[in-house]
Structure formats: structure tokens, C-alpha cells
Amino acid sequence: MAKRKFPLRQTRNIGIMAHIDAGKTTTTERILYYTGRIHKIGETHEGASQMDWMEQEQERGITITSAATTAQWNDHRVNIIDTPGHVDFTVEVERSLRVLDGAVAVLDAQSGVEPQTETVWRQATTYGVPRVVFVNKMDKLGADFLHANETLHDRLQANAHPIQLPIGAEDNFTGIIDLVDMNAVMYSNDLGTETEIVEIPEDYRELAEEWHTKLVEAVAEMDEDLMMQYLEGEEISAEQLKDGIRKATLSVEFYPVLVGSAFKNKGVQLLLDAVVDYLPSPLDVRAIVGHEQNDPEAEIKVEAGDDQPFAALAFKVMTDPYVGRLTFFRSYSGTLESGSYILNATKDSRERVGRILQMHANSRQEISEVFSGDIAAAVGLKNTSTGDTLCDLDTPVILESMEFPEPVIQVAIEPKSKADQDKMGLALQKLAEEDPTFRAETDHETGEVIIAGMGELHLDIIVDRLKREFKVEANVGAPQVSYRETFTEKVESEGKFVRQSGGKGQYGHVWIEFEPNEEGAGFEFEDAIVGGVVPREYIPAVKSGLEASLENGVLAGYPLVDVKAKLYDGSYHDVDSNETAFKVAASMSLKNAAKKAGAVILEPLMAVEVTVPEDYMGDIMGHISARRGNIEGSTQRGNTTIVKGFIPLSEMFGYATALRSATQGRGTFTMQFDHYDQVPKSIAEEIIKKNGGKA
Fold first, then answer.
1. Taking a C-beta distance cutoff of 8 angstroms, is the pair 177, 184 a contact?
2. Helix %, strand %, coil % for the chain, to 5?
3. Secondary structure tally for the chain: helices H, strands E
4. Distance CA 29, CA 49 (A)
5. Which of 191, 429, 482, 578 is the most buried (most CB within 10 A)?
6. How many other CB atoms are found less than 10 A from the CB of residue 286?
7. CA diameter of the chain
8. What is the architecture of the domain spanning 485-598?
């Protein structure tokens, strides 16, 4: 039996998260360099980064999949997951945060908090993940550390406090002041390997004292003993301050802010120190709570420790060109040896673990055993998908799974040849296994294969992967929006299906009350039958008849959502009634209701943020209005204007090109799905007509 290299107390599972282009991947690269995992630094803008290992990632200079890697620093094991910053890949961030204990939020020193930072910050808050903030790119033109720190308060309402200050900025960024130990680290070369710890320079002393006092006060406020000591005028030592910061950070009520430039190799070792000093080990986070296999109400506490039964969560499935299907998992308790059998409690199936690999971006090291708190990848799991619980055969437990957003955009895809057609089905199935926000299905009416995802870039990458990894050539249609339908009025509606022409007939008869449900609440069915007017055995058939009809909507063939249905009356025939007849009757009741229930079409609205030089402000306001958008407000930052608003997804296709040409390439925008809203009547009529509507 293998022996554990690092005690659980000295293990850190962290994620690196940020807005696109804030320098996450470069920061991770530097961490790997300084912890001895790589010998040559790979630059993202040269397409040589270790963590961005898919071809598309290296070409586009963005991170798409969360690469997991393991490093060592100061007698600690640090497992790192590098997450994408592009909003189309939010699901990767969500998956990673679910299995991490702590995170590093990377900000751009010029821009501070950006839209995707808000999204990932919100996700981390949902999962209660302690964070430290790294204000990166201090060497960049316009870098402003105190402004970036301010955006943490303004845009995230975060109780964030600098524990460092930069010495200089842009080309003159030469060192970092440590506000805990009250000294300075000066860098004498660009590799960051030659550093000198000196006293705080004279011209920074006053600023450092001011921010040190602010830090002490903020930490003391969260610790009664320190507060008493501080009020009595006693000195708080650096060790006490460190302990106070750690406690407050672990409680997810305080966020230490660090500074540096990963590209110029400054501040990365200090960031690693902060990961070890302030972020939690698996023993510091609350025990994860699961439930019994057959009883979601019966809770089971899963304690971290090698002596406990094995329990882990599969958080990513991917196909590797060399070893086949890889399942990444986070072990919460117990140990697992390669070659052993485990239970997939979610699917109630036995799985055999062939080999266990510790991943380092895309190179791998085979290990014989995994311990509590580790992140590793298993080869040989056939039925496991994202979010499944893997556990000991004798102690089944289901850990709380992950919820993924519904796709908002779809395109039709058509193989170019018969050979491509045969390969495409299998390839799409594999891609859907890897990515829970990607769907592939065949439209039963047209026979077309429809793929759906989180945005244009998401689907571009999928089509690209089909070509590169699976050698499938395909033609892709224009993007289509995933519209929905819903009711706006409360109505009662009858559905009666009768076929009686001698011999065994069909008879189903229902009265159902339909009304709108809350947004996002989905379909709710209520059985209010009294006195057996519809026999018990036919009630499930009424529900499934409605569910099947909801899929195809009542206006233009889009799913009908957020509706309550109450079955309250009906009748049956002793001989002719059966499940099929009641399914059809339920479907007829829904169709009859459509005419009276004020059925409308809903469209996805995107929260859009456009950043442009202020000279173009007027043009951009016009752009947004012309695209049926609502402007929420705008903010000035230097000579740049940031305009926020909501625009229907259907109006956003091709916007990147339009914005570039309107601003001579100087404008950028981000968008992410926000909510569904009613389509204006004139546009709804066009959609219905185009789809050979039912209305």
C-alpha cells in the first residue's frame, strides 16, 4: 500500500478564476514554473501554454476546459484547476468550484472587476469557497492597484482588504510591500528569481502605515480577542495578524488582496505563500453532506480522512487520445487503489477502476492509490458522467450533484458524407458526455441533427473539435435561438378523446385548469380528482400526456414552460378507457387551452456590457436601441465608457463584427444569458409564420 506523501492538513485544492484575459493561465504557468513542474515558461500569447492543451485553446489564446494539475510548495501539495474566463464556458467554472476548497480570483490591474469576474465570484459565493484576490498585470499601461481594489467593493460588495501594496506601476513596477510583516520585496530581474527583502522605501512608508492600520482594524473587527487587544492599545504581532486573516478568510467573510505581474514574474511566489497561509485544507472546510441512495431526506455526513469509507464526486469526463475515457474526480474521504471495484451510487452500477492518473495539464503520471482530498483521473469507468458519486461498495452515499444551465443557442449540423454521418453520431455522444451544457438531438419532423450550447463560441469549438479530434466534416446552419412558450392567463379546458365504432374503442375525458407558474419554476402537475371520476391508474397517463405535448409547444413548436396544470374533473368508460386515450385527452386539453390562455413566445435576453472609447458612446447607444435593447446605465473610466444593457440573443448574432467596424476595432463587449422575456407581438407573429405555426 502506498504511503501518503503530504498530510491532509498540508493539501490545498484551489481554482484559478477570472474574466477572460486577466492573466489566469499565465499565473498558473508561473506557479508551475516556481514549484518545479515545468522547466520552460510557456506564454499564452505565443500559444505555448502548458495548461491550455487543446489545439483550439492554443490557437485562440483562451482556456476552454479546466485542466487539473498538481504542484508542491513549502511542504504542501497544491492541486490547481485552471478555469476558463469566457462566459460560454461558465459550466467549466461551475464544475471546478464544486470540488475545490479555495480559489484565487485574478483581476486585471487596469480594469479591476469585469463582467465574468462577477459571474465566477457569484458562483464561488454559492458554493461557499474562500478566496484570495490577485491583482495581476501591474506592468500594464494604466495599471491602478487601488482602483482595482475599489471595484471589489463597488461591483462585488466584497469585504476585500489589501495585504500587499505595489511599489511603482507599469514599467516602474519594481517591488511589493508586505502589509503583514511590514517589509518590502524588491525584484532585480524579470525572471523574479532574484529578490531582496528590504525595509519599506521612505516615500512609501506613510501609505504602508495607513493600509496596515486599515488591515489590522478590518481583521480585529472579525475576531473578538484581537479587538480587545487592539482597543487596549496593545501591538498585534504579524503572527496574530496572519492567524486572524486565515480565520476570517476561511469563514468566507474576508478576502485578502495581493498584487503582482505574472508575465513579469513578480508576486507569484508570494501568492503561493498566501495560498498555503490563508486558503483551506480539506480539513478546514465543512464536512460535505450526502444522502442515502434510496432516501434523499436521510443525510450522511462525509468526513475527510483516509480511514473513512471512500467517497468522491466525478466532476469531468473527457476523451483522451491516448488512454480513452478519463473521469476526473475529487476524493472527499477514504482511499482508492487502482484495479479496485467501486459503486457509482447515482446510477447504482458497479465500476472497475483500471488505472489512476495524476494529471499535469496534458501529461500524466500513473499512481497506485488516491487519498482523501486528492484530485485525480480514473481510466476505465464506463457508466460515470459528470456529477455522479463514486463510493465504497459497502457504504453507498450520494453527494449533492451539480446543476447546469439550459443551452440558449442552437444550430443544425449536417455531415458532408456517408462516412462522416456514421462517425458524427458517436462523436456528438462523446462530446455531450464531456459537457453537460451541450446537447445534440435529431429533430423528428425534419430529420436534422440539432446541436445546442451556451453561445456562438461554444458551438464553434464543438464543430472544430468534431473536425480535429473525430475527423468529421460537417456543414453548419445559421445559429437559431432557443425560444420558449408560456401561458399568461388562467383557464379551464376540456379534452375529450372518444373513438367508439364497435369492438374495443378509446375513451378519455379530462377537465384541466392551466395557469402561469413563476419564471424558472417549470411544469407543476396537481391531481385534484375527487370521487374517482378519473380512475387512479389513469392519472399518471394524464401527466405524461401533458409533458409530451409541452415539449412541442402550442404556438410555434417551442417547449411550453412554467405552467401549472390541475386535473380536477373528467369521466371514463369501463371498457374503452385506457392510458393512451387519457394521454391524448390531456394533449387535446392543452391545445384547447392555448387559444384562451394568452400563449406567448419567450426569448433569451442577454446581459450585455460594451466597452468603448467615449467618442463612440452615441453610436453604441444607437446600436443597442436598434437591436431592441434596454440600456441599464453607463460608467466612465478615464476616456472609456462602459454601457450596460439587456439585448435579445436573436439580435446579437454578428454583433462582434458590427462593433468592430463601428469603433475601428477599439470596442469590446461581453454577454451572458440573464433571463427569458416576452417577444413583441409583431416579432412573435413572424416566428410563428416561419415555423409553420400552430396558432
1. yes
2. 30, 35, 35
3. 16, 38
4. 7
5. 482
6. 8
7. 104
8. 2-Layer Sandwich (3.30)
Higher pLDDT: 246 or 114? It is 246
Q: Whole-angstrom Cα distance, residue 75 to residue 586? A: 65
- Please answer whether residues 464 and 451 qualify as being in contact, where contact means their C-beta atoms are separated by less than 8 angstroms: no
pLDDT of 408 reads 73
**Nearest by Cα to 266 from 353, 336, 176:** 176
Is the pLDDT score of 12 beyond 70?
yes
Topology match between the domains 409-481 and 485-598: no
Q: What is the reported pTM?
A: 0.68
**Of 419 and 246, the one with more pLDDT:** 246
Highest CATH level, class, for 602-690: alpha beta
Question: To which residue does cell 447546469 refer?
Answer: 404
The answer to whether the beta carbons of residues 317 and 91 sit under 8 Å apart is no
The full set of domain ranges for the chain reads 8-278, 288-399, 409-481, 485-598, 602-690
Return the residue matching grid coordinates 504579524.
Answer: 238
- Write out the binding residues for GTP: 18-25, 82-86, 136-139
Check whether 461 has a pLDDT greater than 60. Answer: yes
Span 253-257, average pLDDT: 96
Please enumerate, by residue number, every residue annotated as part of a binding site.
18-25, 82-86, 136-139
Give CATH for domain 288-399: 2.40.30.10
- Class for the domain spanning 409-481: alpha beta
Tens-place pLDDT, residues 632-691: 988 887 677 889 999 998 898 888 778 878 887 777 787 778 889 999 999 999 998 888
Instruction: Report the amino acid identity of residue 269.
Output: Q
Per the CATH hierarchy, to which homologous superfamily does domain 8-278 belong? P-loop containing nucleotide triphosphate hydrolases (3.40.50.300)
288, 305 contact by CB (below 8 A): no
